[in-house]
């Protein structure tokens, strides 16, 4: 009778597994980021230009992150309620330019905006169907 002993080096196995996991997460994150760049609503291009992606390894977890840093990214992605803007100083006026002309107003009302979830749509398209992970915007 011949005895065979199999010794597994857990550290090496973990390293191989983490390299493979990082490769897969990087691929999905890159594809999702590229798709989100195509789907990003564009007016001035600032929102699209603010997009960034990263892949980080923390302990035994690989995390792919896509971030749009434009101040209004969450409002466009998630939508927003209607709002009325008033001047900072009581009795003051708002000043803005419309069609090349300077306009003054005591207040400005902006209607609610429907959500345009381009990042979630990109993730759904890349992942196929409803994603089995969390999307956090804002």
What do these coordinates show?
The protein is α+β, with helices and mostly antiparallel strands and 138 residues long. It has 2 domains: 97 residues; 34 residues, no CATH class. Helix content is 36%, strand content 23%. Strands 1-2 form a two-stranded antiparallel ribbon. The protein has a two-stranded antiparallel sheet with strand order 3-6. It has a two-stranded antiparallel ribbon with strand order 4-5. Strand 1 and strand 2 form a beta hairpin. It is elongated and about 95 Å long. The termini are far apart.
Task: Quickly describe the structure.
Helices cover 36% and strands 23% of the residues. The chain is an alpha+beta fold and 138 residues long. The protein is elongated, with a radius of gyration of 24 Å.
Which tags fit this structure?
2 domains; alpha+beta; two-stranded antiparallel sheet; 138 residues
* Uncertain spans: none
Please, how many domains? 2
Rg is 24 Å
User: What structural class do helix, strand and pairing data support?
Assistant: alpha+beta
Shape: elongated
Number of strands: 6
Strand content: 15-25%
The overall average pLDDT, rounded, is 86
The H-and-E topology, N to C, reads as HHEEHEEEEH
Distance between the termini: 65 Å
Largest sheet: 2 strands, antiparallel
Question: Into which percent range does the helicity of residues fall?
Answer: 25-40%
As laid out across the biggest beta sheet, the strand order is 1-2
